[in-house]
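Entry for zinc ion complex. Fields follow.
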Amino acid sequence: MKFFNTLTRTKEEFVPLKPPHVGLYTCGPTVYDFVHIGNLRAFMFDDLLRRWLEYRGFNVTHVMNITDVEDRIINKVRESGKPLKEVTNLYATAFLADLDRLNVKRAHIIPRATEAIPGMIAMIEKLIAGNHAYVSDDKCVYYSIKSFPEYGKLSHRQVGDQSTAVARIKSDDYDKEEMADFALWKAWDEKDGDVKWDSPWGPGRPGWHIECSAMSIQHLGETFDIHCGGEDLVFPHHEDEIAQSEAATGKPFVRYWLHNAHLLVEGKKMSKRFNNYYALGDLLAKGWSGREVRYVLLSAHYRDPLNFTMDGLQAARSALQRMDEFLLKLDANPAGIVPDLQSRFDAAMDDDLNTSAALGALFEFIREANKRTIAASEAAAILATWQRIDQVLGFGMPVKSEAPAEVLALVEERQAARKAKNFKRSDEIRDQLAKQRWGIEDTPKGPRAKRI
Ligand SMILES: [Zn+2]
């Protein structure tokens, strides 16, 4: 099994520190707003990685933090006039509900930053004692990037030579061009309102980067197997996590760094300005299902940029229908082909989680299988293999279902509306049915309700 490691920029054979155990850390959301589908792509990727490791027999401990104190949260608290906890609980709950709708497995441990502050303070004290950090005249504590000669090894960039002065930066998310000493502890100021904790350096709050170092080490140990996140986190966030952790412990921090590529919507960077900004709730309201969104997010290899489009959702709907029809037919008329399905699927996934090739193998199999008659014993074997594969893909097996009476009544009403050329009403009915995961198929015998 090979994964592409951002640290070495090569595909490496995956060998965990203490097999069969694997420690996996994911940078969770910063809960100041609803997450968008670009964020969700990263969490789908973690889910796929974890499911693949489990499929391969590893015993994974998955930790995903929730960043519930950070610059943007403080801004939201100030703007809304609501307490920090109220703001962060609202978005954290909504986030976890989104993961459920996408059938993403919950991390085993979901620590919140505000509950781990003593560990962060202890780590900062260690860094000061080792001359890797200093208290500045603004009463903030900064990490000295020149104290760590390997600074820049993840993002593959170098700090200037010893003689050049290094700037200092207090904000959590800074420009990719800036190589600066960054804040570990931020002294309280009026803008922070009630949000503050006591520390040896006076009241204040932790910086974002130290939060992840402290929480990952607390739950997974000083060296652990895999850290993942979106590629936008490589610098500065993950670079800073390495600098803090390795300077504090003297040990390698993480063995494999895996990053997913970004997502575009209809070919453009997602932005509220371009009207192409989607939270999961926006897509569900348009009648798409979590399962269809999951399919689109898994359809491209995680290191390739993904262009998320409405056409892509439509294609996902058809692909899932093809899969379901094949499986239901197999269930009803036992069918006879030798399933090399599993070995093709496994080989694609072992090669750095190549989901597009894995899905390609599934559909090629469906095409071949549809050409012949399949014997009973083999149909059972195919279904068992498929169930095993679905442990990884998480689309769920199709359920045979007769449409309930109210759905049939709506299909009839739509037909009548169409005859009367009331297309507004017929579209309304179609959208209403789609929300309940029913589609309408026009057949020579008239329209028929169909599970989507
Ligand atoms: Zn993080």
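NOTE: The first helix runs from residue 37 to 55.
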